[in-house]
Amino acid sequence: VIDNLYISDFDNYAIRKVDTSGIITTIVSYCGALSHGHSGDGGPATAAAINQPINMAIKENNLYFVQYLNYVQKVDLTTGIITTEYADTKPTLTWFTGIDFDNAGNMYLVDIYARQLIKIDKLGNKTIIAGSGTMGSGGDGGPATDAEFNSLSNVRVGKNGDLFVSDGYNPRIR
Fold first, then answer.
1. Following DSSP, what letter does each residue of 116-156 receive, concatenated?
2. pTM of the entire structure?
């Protein structure tokens, strides 16, 4: 799993795997068709309809990915079964563009529309970790929840637990 390369094929509504031999395989796609949506939970990922996958993270032989608008889905890389791990049901528009996990199993999501970094703990509790929701570039040196972002695109958790977010239009990593 670790040595494979996974590709988020945004405009083809698919996720592809390139193994160590250079063989490419589609692991998530609605029967290979250019079709999108949200269906197939509990079934084979190759028969699931998804909306434009953006970023991915691997945890415990599972591939997690965020897709256009508000879903986080998981593909068990052993069985090929897809499930929805998290869906933001708030009435405002959400678009997760980044995902990663810390060593404790907490999930971190970047919401490009809310301009915030969100933590989802193992019980499903949601906490805003960074971002005031205001477009800008201010806030360095202050509380992370007061920080202004312009276009958050991804998050990575460092080995020591530090969080790094990319803010595309500012442009910087914070």
1. EEEEE-TT--EEEEE--S-BSS--TTS-GGG--BS-EEEEE
2. 0.88
Of 158, 159, 8, 124, nearest in space to 173 by CA: 158
**Residue 98 contacts residue 113 (beta carbons within 8 Å):** no
Length of the chain as a residue count = 174
How many Å apart are CA 70 and CA 142, to the nearest integer? 29
Compute the distance between CA of residue 135 and CA of residue 81 in angstroms, rounded to an integer: 38
- Band the pLDDT of 49: cuts 50, 70, 90: confident
Task: Express each pLDDT in 3-33 by its tens digit.
Answer: 899 999 888 888 999 999 999 999 988 655 5
Place of tokens 């460092």: 158
In the block, residue with structure tokens 């993270």: 57
Q: What is the predicted pLDDT for the residue at 136?
A: 92
> Which residue bears the tokens 């197939």?
40
Q: Cα separation of 116 and 139, whole Å?
A: 13
